[in-house]
Every structure is written in C-alpha cells, then in structure tokens.
Design a protein that fits this description.
324 residues
Length: 324
Amino acid sequence: MKKIRFGIISTAQIVPRFVKGIRESRSGEVHAIASGTLAKAVEMSEELTIPKAYGSYEALCEDDEIDIVYVATYNKGHYEATKMALTYKKHVLVEKPFTLNLQQAEELFALAEKNGCFLMEAQKSVFLPISLQVKEVIQQNKIGKIHWLQSVTSYPNADHISWFHSLEAGGGTLHGSGSYPLQYMQFILDQPITEYSGSVTRRKGETDDQVNLALKFQNQALGNIFISVKVDIPSKMTIYGELGRIEIPYFWKTKQASIYYADGKQETLLGEFDSEFVFEVEHVNECLQNHCIESPIMTKKMTVATVGLVDNLYTKWLEEDDKL
C-alpha cells in the first residue's frame, strides 16, 4: 500500500496529537513540518521526529514528496495557507473553521476542483467509532423519531489562546467550536439545517465568549447549541427521540455514550482508541488512494453551508454593534 505523505503547516498545540493519529494509521506518514520561523519548525520536528523542517509555508508546499498538506494555523490563516497549498497542487486537510467567510470557502473548493486536488475540512468527531454507532442506533429507530438535539460545550478558560478575543484573527466561541456540533448534528441525522438564529454575549469590538443557537432541520427536528468560556459545566450532546435519548459526553473525542430507553432500560456504547485523530486520517488516506477530490462524508456542501451559517451570524452581530 502506497504511503500517504503528510506535510504539516503550523506548530500549534494540536499538531503533536494529529501526528500521533497519522502514525497510528495504516498508510500515513509525516514527512515535513513548516512554521513562520525555521527555529520553531526545527524544534517541533526534533520533538516529534519529523524528517524535514521548513521556515516558510511556501517551502513546504514546494516539496514534491508531500502528498497532502494539513493546515493547523490560527483561524484567519486557514484561507491563505490552504490557497497556497492548492496553488502548488497539493491535496489539503484544513482545520476547522474551514474559512472565516463564505466567499473564501467557495473560492478554495473551486481552486481544488480546477487543480484536481482533494480538499476537506478536518472534523474528527464524525469519524469516531461512537459516532458511527450512534448514527446506526438512530437509523435502526431504536429511540424512535428524533425531535430535539442539544449540545453544550464549555471551555471555562480560553486564555491560553492569545488571539481568542480577536475578531480580526477569527477568535471566539462560534468560530472556535461551532463546526463540531453543527456538522455532527447534520451527520447524525443525515439532514441539513433549514432555519437558524443565534444570540451572543461579547464586548463591543471583541468576539464572542458565549453563543446560543437555535436550529431547525429538514426533517422538522429542532436543535440547540450552547458554547461558552464563561461557565464550567459538563460538555455533552443529547439526542432526544420518542422512545428514549442518547447522551454523548465530549462527543468530539469520546469513547463512550449511553442510551436511556423510555421503558427504563439502559445501554452503553463503547469505542476504544489511542488517538481520536486516526479515524479521520484513515478516511483521508482512503480518499486519496481512491483518487477522490471530495470526501463523501465531510462534503463540500456541508462545509460551505456551515461557513455560510457562521459568516451570516457574525455579520449580523457586527451590524448590531454599529447600531449601539
């Protein structure tokens, strides 16, 4: 089996965990890493035993031995780094949020298609064993028709992210964590979002520290998403059906979920792993081996719709600022 050689753009905190996922995969290998400075790239390449280090993103993209570029820069940097990689005709896996506005997202997918490149938004949650089991439970109608989904995500301290409160950098709770529940709910239900609205708390000129979204799906199910860095409460997804509910704690990285049936019975779902990134990496590797330019699971349609939803909400909130 041909090895899929990854080049990594950024030395962000997520990178060591992602590298672990590549190395646990059957056909992936880490070939190079790049940072804005060569010293940072060399330091992480030595720490993670990565063969090559580059002091610029362009130098990495020029490496003919790299098959796919993983973009893990700060949020605003996703667009430029992805565009550069696609211009060099590299396949790209880009961290969430894919881009900060709809125009950028559409441009990148158009460029990928023009150059025959695979392009996907990183979304590890939908590839986890538990996620697949939960989806199967719903498809088997074990908890009946789904009427409501509720997601709570709490990060009581975001101070370690230096740009978290910056609008310019793409900080905030919705940019940072909104893709996970928005796309997870659509994946689980196999239904698009048809209506949405959102409330937010933030200081004028800064980005959001709490967001509360109300959703309606095509099949008439309703959803609620709450994300906060202000309160310390359990993070979980709950899916309510006519015959019971499914509770998924920390759904974006979990190994366990619980089903509570209306008749009082309970069932536990288990899905063990070492790296929660390995399943996403395996999917990407398989797509490249099959010469796909789009994932059949994390589709262009889902990514563009999510970027558009988030873009619309931030635009609305900024317009409200101007009226104050």
